[in-house]
Design goal:
single chain; alpha/beta; Metallo-beta-lactamase, Chain A; 8-stranded mixed sheet; 6-stranded mixed sheet; binds zinc ion
Length: about 250
Amino acid sequence: MSIALTSHGWTQLGPHSYARRYEPYDVTIGLIVGSDALLVVDSRASVAEGEELLADVRTLSDKPIRGVVNTHRHVDHTQGNAAFKGVDAIGHETLDEVAIGLSSAWSTDLGDCLVEVVHPGAAHTAGDVVVKVVPDRVAYVGDLVEESGPPAYGDDSYPLEWGAALDLVVGLCEPEATVVPGHGDAVDRDFVQEQRQTILDVANQIRAAAAAGMTIEDALAQKWPLEPSLLEHAVRRGYEQLGVPAT
Ligand SMILES: [Zn+2]
């Protein structure tokens, strides 16, 4: 991974790629600066927070903003959209928030910088997308990967499919790529591969518990690769997806 520089509170990860961590939620926001236009990745949790983000964007560049990509639907990534007046929100077609919805892939050229937005399949949510800054070898991956905490399995997660989505993310990234998680600092591709393995191990254990006829309570009493209290939704969702009665 390249050495990160800091400019006006933004961490520079490549010639066009920046990231910045914000409270609350320790959400990590992306900014891509092309010769013609900017692209913002996620918008924070409220209009006021989005306005603060917009002011921070303007400390780096006054170029037009091509769009705000929402990596997924959760509030800490989308509710600042309204602060970006007249700017299209871009994201997976399942998101209510977006003006430009994609089903699998979308791309835009910011002048000297091609950006690809790819839906790798259901994972943290049904509508996750990855934003790849092609010339910089930087990928913003939202909550498909977490650095400052463990992977977050919510009641809208797809624990059995998440690992396959991360296979696609790994495939999109060069060995030396920089990967920006939805929460925390940038990581390298090895980190993504390790987190993918943990997620695959969780999925395999859910399948084994279901096949053994374990109740969710008994399944969660086992030893897991992550703290079991974080896996209640994962096991419940996995059982639902396997068609096993959630008892
Ligand atoms: Zn999040």
